[in-house]
């Protein structure tokens, strides 16, 4: 039971807070502060941004502490760190995940940060040293940034062999919260799931064999624009390790989904639907995307539950439309991939709360509300789908011989000539079900047009009762990058 997620989480907190003088700070909400340059809270450092920038004194809660640690609720849907397209198709990226974090605000720097991290992994979590790889920043000429040879030397001094210490550039070893804001070179720790000791060439390639687990950022700059970095008033350490990935390592699996954070959700799916157990499909490949569907549904239900618990309901605009988009994506799996009766997603709220409620009590406290919102969202989803099918029957009555929807027909469906306006996603989905093809170029151009979303206008409002005593969420940034796009992709073989 040492390896159960609950223990893994608390060993991290215990190590930093009880053994190394850090103060525990609660996870902040997944709704970022207005204008902080992110969509959802995408990392543990978000709530400390003013401390890094020097625009706020260390708050009274933190007074006297220059070292803090926690486990932060993070969502990476939209914005600079957008993992939505990979979720379910790989085994290591989630829309919602927990980031185990530790910080030094102008206190210790590289030496101590690296030593503490290594000691925790080797002596507390008992990872094999030869399975670990360490990357450092190799510098960037365009931005006139020096290579971080100091960090490479620190790892060497700590006993890491030279062929496990690897240089990488801006993409992997310079961490930035958003298009602007605090940033700096980082050093990352990667885990080789094969234990072969010769996987240096696989680090940062996306290979499922070698996985990034922990990022140690040396916060030194504030990015003002694409070309301008200015030094921060002082140097800080900001580290973040994915709990789900660490649990996978400690539980001896390459898949985050094969851990105690996800099994209760898969068990509930199996029990409620009679579909095969997750990972139980016949054959080696994921025929029909059933396992992928399970992963998407489990992941998205966690994301929805955490957002709703933070008072962010699915809606028409901004952040709210993103929550709705993710819920719709999960419902698409239920109704159009797995072909499950209505009601499953609501039933998955229980195991999600079971696995996360101890760490984030707001989930336990609002379990019923979360379930109500999810069920209501499903009613809306099915309503729009039925209306869409009705529109198609009308269109097909007029033009029974069509094989491909052209621009005019797509626009008419979208604009509500036959009934309720339809999203491009819904048009493509139902066209497919009728055996019709769709002009992809038209769909693509509609999806990338910065026009206001028709489907958002048409999304039925949540009932007043549900909104009761939920405070209004902060004004979110608007952006059009998020559209209904379903990728036809398979999980990589491992
Ligand atoms: P990757 O390269 O795998 O996408 P990243 O470099 O984007 O990860 P960081 O921003 O460095 O990730 O975040 C710190 C840590 O958080 C990562 O090392 C990883 O363990 C974890 N992490 C990042 N994104 C996700 C995600 N979408 N789901 C689960 N864990 C994640
Ligand atoms: Mg990433
Ligand atoms: Mg990375
Ligand atoms: Mg990283």
Automatic annotation (TrEMBL):
Keywords: Aminoacyl-tRNA synthetase, ATP-binding, Ligase, Metal-binding, Nucleotide-binding, Protein biosynthesis, RNA-binding, tRNA-binding, Zinc. It comes from Dreissena polymorpha. This is Alanine--tRNA ligase. It is an enzyme of class 6 (ligase). Belongs to the class-II aminoacyl-tRNA synthetase family. Alax-L subfamily. GO terms for molecular function: alanine-tRNA ligase activity; aminoacyl-tRNA deacylase activity; ATP binding; tRNA binding; zinc ion binding. Monomer. One of its GO terms (biological process) is alanyl-tRNA aminoacylation. Its cofactor is Zn(2+). Consists of three domains; the N-terminal catalytic domain, the editing domain and the C-terminal C-Ala domain. The editing domain removes incorrectly charged amino acids, while the C-Ala domain, along with tRNA(Ala), serves as a bridge to cooperatively bring together the editing and aminoacylation centers thus stimulating deacylation of misacylated tRNAs. Its EC number is 6.1.1.7. The keyword RNA-binding applies. Residues 3-494 form the Alanyl-transfer RNA synthetases family profile domain.
């Amino acid at each position: 039971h040492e390896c159960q997620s609950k223990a893994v989480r608390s060993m991290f907190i215990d190590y930093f807070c009880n053994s190394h003088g850090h103060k525990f700070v609660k996870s902040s909400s997944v709704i970022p502060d207005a204008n902080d340059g992110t969509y959802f809270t995408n990392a543990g450092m978000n709530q400390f941004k003013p401390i890094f920038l020097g625009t706020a004194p260390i708050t009274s809660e933190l007074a006297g502490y220059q070292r803090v640690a926690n486990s932060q609720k993070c969502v990476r849907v939209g914005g600079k760190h957008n993992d939505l397209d990979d979720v379910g198709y790989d085994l290591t990226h989630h829309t919602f995940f927990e980031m185990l974090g530790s910080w030094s605000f102008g206190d210790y720097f590289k030496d101590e940060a690296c030593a503490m991290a290594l000691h925790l992994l080797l002596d507390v979590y008992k990872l094999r040293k030869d399975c670990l790889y360490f990357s450092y920043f190799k510098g960037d000429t365009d931005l006139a940034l020096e290579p971080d040879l100091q960090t490479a030397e620190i790892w060497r001094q700590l006993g890491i062999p030279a062929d496990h210490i690897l240089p990488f550039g801006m993409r992997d070893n310079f961490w930035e919260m958003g298009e602007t804001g605090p940033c700096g070179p980082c050093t990352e720790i990667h885990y080789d799931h094969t234990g072969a000791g010769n996987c240096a060439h696989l680090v940062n390639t996306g290979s499922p064999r070698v996985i990034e687990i922990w990022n140690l950022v040396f916060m030194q700059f504030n990015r003002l624009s694409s070309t301008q970095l200015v030094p921060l008033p002082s140097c800080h350490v900001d580290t973040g390790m994915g709990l789900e990935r660490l649990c996978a390592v400690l539980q001896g699996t390459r898949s985050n989904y094969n851990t105690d954070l996800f099994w209760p959700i898969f068990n509930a799916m199996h029990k409620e639907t009679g579909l095969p157990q997750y990972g139980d499909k016949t054959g080696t490949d994921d025929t029909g995307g059933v396992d992928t569907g399970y992963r998407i549904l489990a992941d998205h239900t966690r994301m929805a539950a955490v957002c709703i618990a933070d008072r962010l309901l699915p809606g028409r605009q901004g952040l709210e439309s993103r929550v709705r988009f993710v819920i719709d994506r999960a419902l698409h799996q239920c109704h159009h991939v797995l072909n499950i009766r209505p009601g499953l997603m609501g039933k998955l709220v229980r195991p999600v709360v079971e696995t996360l409620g101890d760490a984030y009590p707001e989930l336990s406290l609002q379990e019923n509300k979360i379930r109500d919102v999810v069920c209501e969202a499903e009613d809306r989803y099915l309503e729009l789908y039925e209306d869409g099918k009705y529109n198609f029957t009308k269109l097909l009555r007029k033009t029974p011989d069509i094989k491909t929807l052209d621009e005019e027909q797509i626009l008419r469906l979208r604009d509500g000539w036959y009934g309720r306006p339809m999203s491009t996603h819904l048009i493509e989905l139902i066209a497919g079900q009728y055996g019709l093809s769709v002009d992809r170029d038209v769909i693509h151009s509609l999806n990338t047009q910065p026009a206001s979303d028709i489907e958002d206008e048409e999304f039925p409002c949540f009932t007043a009762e549900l909104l009761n005593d939920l405070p209004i969420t902060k004004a979110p940034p608007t952006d059009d990058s998020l559209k209904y796009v379903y990728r036809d992709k398979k999980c990589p073989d491992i």
